[in-house]
Design goal:
Blueprint (H helix, E strand, L loop, with lengths): L10 E2 L5 E2 L2 E7 L7 E8 L4 E2 L2 E2 L4 E4 L5 E5 L5 E3 L4 E4 L5 E4 L6 E3 L1 E4 L4 E2 L1
Antiparallel strand pairs: 1-3, 2-5, 3-4, 4-12, 4-13, 6-14, 7-10, 7-13, 8-9, 8-11
């Protein structure tokens, strides 16, 4: 059994992955014991992800605020606290808060190489 402390320094999301200011608090990195990684991601008003895929899929659990999620070319869906969204492997998706609100959400992702488009 391995115990770790989450939290610590927030990092600002890279411009390659996000538009606007996004803060990432690492909870768990994937390693040899588990391919699952988790982070608490907070979106500032107007921030969003770049369209991207996760080869093994991604699960997003909304903890606070209101956000939007969509597949590229698909309908935009509003997501609120306690909603859990599973995004299928290789589906190009994007997430964002409303234009005037911030939005924290922890995505759980089985890590492999990240693909961005």
């Amino acid at each position: 059994m391995k115990h770790t402390q989450s939290g610590g320094q927030s990092t600002v999301g890279t411009e390659a992955w996000f538009t606007g200011t996004v803060y990432i608090d690492g909870i768990r990195n994937s390693d040899e014991q588990s391919a699952v990684g988790c982070a608490h991601v907070r979106f500032s008003p107007g921030a969003r992800t770049a369209w991207h895929t996760h080869p093994k899929g991604q699960t997003v659990h909304v903890t606070d605020g209101i956000g939007y999620v969509a597949r590229r070319g698909g309908a935009v869906r509003e997501i609120r606290p306690d909603v859990v969204v599973h995004i299928e492997p290789t589906k190009s998706t994007g997430t964002a808060p409303p234009p005037t609100a911030s939005w924290p959400t922890p995505p759980f992702t089985k890590r492999t190489a990240r693909a961005r488009s």
